[in-house]
Write a structure and sequence with these properties.
about 325 residues; alpha/beta; TIM Barrel; Four Helix Bundle (Hemerythrin (Met), subunit A); 2 domains; nine-stranded parallel β-sheet; 16 helices; 9 strands; about 10% strand; globular; flavin adenine dinucleotide binding; tRNA-dihydrouridine20 synthase activity; nucleotide-binding; oxidoreductase
Length: about 325
């Protein structure tokens, strides 16, 4: 286990990540994003402890080495089960364990995990402590600035203080509160106002913690501006709706001397991967659906999306569909 000068386990220090998103950040999307950015921290979809302990682990937890650095986001509230899942993840080669304390869906609430746990910081602390005792990996927490009427800055600061005292050093903060009743998960991503100032203040008052901000950030200019006040930025839907946004980050955010890939190069690098998974009985659309917005904002984007959408689900569809769609993109680069 790598420790810092204060005896705490070292974090990746990664300044940029793509948020865990249900039905989006599966292994195929992550591999696709790795053709665009090598350095950005990636997350799995949220996976519950019950699913891992009783389900198909190879399907749920499988990933390609190219996807790293990679964090597993867990959903659950039982410290024993969370610790066991953390051990399983460590054995499988994950780089980090993240506890979901931000999802506002009713299904998650009924299971007593996700955003409702913000009202139970001591319970979250016990879960974090159990996981940290079980593994050498960093254990991090993703949460909201508040829930329902518990949305004062002081409420969030108290939550972070209690959980950090259990050993958590990295907190990803969605800068919107969550209404657990009255708003859908989709509405909770847009309706409550963004309060970036609360997250900036959190970093000021907890300078020893690694604070990452999430919510409403869609451009690299906004990323750079946020990095003046916090340690890291997490981008969610914008990463899915405009994945090529990340083509410049290895050079411009991480300072690497690399030439950003072109969109054409990204497509061509995906073709062997697609062929590999089709031989394992996967369907083309399960992979190609993540690539539909690669040409977002470019001439020919509609033709690209239309051709893939109309052909990827057909019997026998293979990587040739992507080659033919690429030929329809005007001035593809």
């Amino acid at each position: 286990m790598m420790l810092d000068d204060n005896g705490q386990r070292k974090l990746s220090g990664n300044p940029l990540s793509i948020a865990p998103m249900m039905e989006r950040t599966d292994r195929h999307f992550r591999y696709f994003m790795r053709q665009i950015t090598r350095r950005t921290l990636l997350y799995t979809e949220m996976i519950t402890t019950a699913a891992i302990l009783r389900g198909d682990r190879d399907k749920l937890l499988g990933f390609s080495p190219e996807e790293k650095p990679l964090s597993l986001q867990l959903g659950g509230d039982n410290p024993i089960e969370l610790a066991e899942c953390a051990r399983i993840a460590e054995d499988r080669g994950y780089d980090e364990i993240n506890l979901n304390v931000g999802c506002p869906s009713s299904r998650v609430k009924e299971g007593n995990f996700g955003a409702c746990l913000m009202a139970q910081p001591e319970k979250v602390a016990r879960a974090v402590e159990a996981m940290q005792k079980a593994v050498d990996l960093p254990v991090t927490v993703k949460h909201r600035i508040g829930i329902d009427d518990r949305d004062r800055y002081e409420d969030m600061a108290n939550f972070v203080r209690i959980v950090s005292e259990a050993g958590c050093r990295r907190f990803t903060v969605h800068a919107r509160k969550a209404w657990l009743q009255g708003l859908s998960p989709k509405e909770n991503r847009t309706v409550p106002p963004l309060r970036y100032g609360d997250v900036h203040r959190l970093k000021q008052e907890f300078p020893h913690l690694f604070i990452e901000i999430n919510g409403g950030i869609t451009t690299l200019a906004e990323v750079r501006e946020q990095l003046k006040s916090v340690d890291a930025v997490m981008i969610g839907r914008a990463a899915y709706d405009n994945p090529f946004l990340f083509a410049m980050v290895d050079r411009d955010i991480y300072g690497e001397k690399v030439t950003p890939p072109t969109r054409r190069e990204v497509v061509e690098s995906m073709l062997p991967y697609i062929d590999y998974w089709l031989k394992k009985s996967w369907k083309l659309h399960a992979i190609s659906r993540h690539m539909l917005e690669l040409f977002a904002g470019q001439a020919g984007s509609k033709a690209w999306k239309r051709y893939i959408s109309e052909n990827a689900h057909l019997p026998g569809a293979d990587s040739q569909v992507l080659r033919e769609a690429l030929a329809k993109v005007l001035n593809s680069r």
